[in-house]
Structure formats: C-alpha cells, structure tokens
Amino acid sequence: MARRRQVTARQERLGTELRKLRESAGLKGREAASLLGTDAGRLSQIESGVAGVSEETVRRLVAHYACTDAELTSALTAMATERTHGWWEEYRGSLPTAFLDLSELEHHATHYWEVSFLHIPGLLQTEDYARQILGHRVPELPPDELDLRVQHRMARRVILEQPTPYKAVIHEAALRIKVGDRTAARVQLAGLLDLSERDHITMRVIPFDLEGFAGADSTMVYVGGAVPQLDTVVRDGPHGTAFIDSEAQLGRFRTLFHRMEAASLAPERSRDFIHTLAKEV
Predict the structure, then answer these.
(1) How many other CB atoms are found less than 10 A from the CB of residue 86?
(2) How many whole angstroms separate alpha carbon 25 and alpha carbon 224?
(3) Contact in structure between 68 and 21 (CB atoms under 8 Å)
(4) Quick one: which H or E segment has residue 19?
(5) pTM of the entire structure?
C-alpha cells in the first residue's frame, strides 16, 4: 500500500499494537519482516502507521506473533480495513489534528468516562460556555478559528445522542465557577440536568465538603475501545493533547476513575445537588 501523507491517531494506534505484539513475541523488526517476505523498512512504516496494512497481513503478523486473543485480532483487522470518512474530516486543514483524532476516537468508543475539576466536561458544555473557554486562549484566536472550534465542540456532542455509555465525575468547583454571566451559568446547569435524565448518561458530583479527598489531579477522558487493550486516555497539557495507550497507564487511570466514582455522590444525589445549585445562581 502507498505511504500516507497524513497519519491519524487511530492508524498510528494500529501500528503501535502490532509493534507491541511483535515485541511480546521477542522478534526484532527484521525477523518479523522476513516472515512476511518484506524488509524491515516496510514493517517500520506499518508499525508507525505511515503505510496501510491489509487484513490478510494483519492476520499473518498476529499468527507469527503467536497471539491467541481472537477478539483483539478481530479488532485489529477491523481497524486495518475500515474506510471511515467521518464528519470531522470537514475540519481537516482548519483545526489542529488532535481535535480530529479525538473525534475519531469518540466515534469508535464503546464507553466514555470523564473526570473534571475546574470546567464542565467538553461534551457537556453549552455553546456559550464552550465559547468562553475556547476564547480564553493566549494569544487570542482569530474570530473565524474560534467559531470553528466552538462548532467542532458542539458537533462532538453527537456521541451523546447515541447509546454509548457515558459517565462524568464533576467536582463542585466546576459547577460553581461562572465561566460566563449568571444567565449562561443557569443555562449550563439546566443543560446538565436535561442530559442526566438520559439512560446512558451518568453524572456524579464530588462536593467541596468531602473529607480526605486528595485526587484533584485526576482529570481525564477515558475512551473504551473494542477490547480493553485498545482503550485510550486523553489528557490536555500545556503543550498539547496526549493520547495514552500503554497497558500500565491504562490500568492506572482505570483505577483512578473508579476511585473518583466511589468518592462522588450517587447519581440521584448528584442530580439533586446540581438542581439546588441551579436555583441558587
């Protein structure tokens, strides 16, 4: 297959998983390449996502690597053969690639977890709230790019219209901080209440008065893959968005999420909590 000019995070992830399987099998690149009848350079391109790979080649590699996990094999072959041209492609060339990679990741999500302490989670934000957050950037974005980013964030909410299980743990600080004016705050809280009524959406609140809480650095987006090995954690940092996929890190963030979940109020109590705040604004 021809080399790609642009590699998406999902394409790169396929290559990464094939590399992990090779290394687990104790094979060097040139050894695995010889089993395919190709050279190490070609295999390197496959493992970096620069070159596409066929279903047959994926199955051959998995067999050579002695992987007996049928579900993982099926998931990898599906990644190799899919030709998704999603709604996010209309933003390619206009927005940072990480925005599009996140949208594609969400499109394939089997479940979606968020923990947020200072802001309402992105998928739950109203348009006014999102515009305030995205517009706070230094240096300021040009008006047309700010409009595109807000439009893209609102388009991402399509996942909330699907039955994909979604869980959000939100600290009271994020609920109380008035990103916009009082009217915008009321609309945002009302929006959370409306979304919380959907069967596949679960919201929990961590209140200020919770004792012994030291987990305020646990902000995360955890996106479930077709199999647990293909889960991804997304974290924003000062230098951009990081997509985390190592087994050890995934395990750590799963544990952190469940700790945040256990520390928070039950869904019904959380809903009452948000409702009370909405009346106070």
Answers:
(1) 13
(2) 25
(3) no
(4) helix 9-24
(5) 0.94
